[in-house]
């Protein structure tokens, strides 16, 4: 991008747990959640055009007291969106062809996927992707 902004959000000075890179705990979960919340707030206020996020450690979010299954659900709730999905986008550097893939399920155990997939769910997700 021509104009990329990176903001530094300071850690909570009152935290009693130390954050160690590569090792998760409640303090790192709280920081991770705060970073996402701040990015969403700035985007909804029109200060940012979008968010690029990284994987999170759900166990650290839980240790910090957050019960969301993942970032997708946080984004949907903060934006007050009822129809949402997790979208992957890729573009061929050779042809310019773009691939868009919307996951039918998110944040559920693999052994629950076959019970969760229904024609109705697939129709809802395809409608979201296309429309």
Automatic annotation (TrEMBL):
Keywords of the record, alphabetical order, are: Metal-binding, NAD, Oxidoreductase
* A GO term, aspect molecular function: NAD binding
Question: What is this protein's record name?
Answer: Pyridoxal phosphate
UniProt organism field: uncultured marine microorganism
């Amino acid at each position: 991008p021509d104009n990329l902004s990176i903001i530094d959000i300071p850690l909570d000075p009152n935290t009693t747990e130390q954050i160690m890179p590569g090792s998760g705990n409640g303090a790192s979960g709280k920081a991770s959640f705060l970073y996402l919340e701040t990015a969403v707030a700035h985007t909804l206020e029109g200060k940012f055009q979008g968010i690029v996020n990284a994987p999170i450690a759900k166990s650290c979010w839980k240790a910090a007291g957050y019960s969301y299954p993942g970032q997708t659900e946080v984004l949907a709730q903060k934006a007050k969106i009822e129809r949402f999905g997790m979208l992957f986008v890729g573009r061929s550097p050779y042809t310019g062809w773009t691939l868009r893939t919307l996951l039918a399920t998110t944040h559920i155990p693999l052994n629950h996927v076959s019970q969760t997939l229904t024609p109705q769910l697939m129709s809802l997700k395809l409608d979201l992707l296309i429309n």
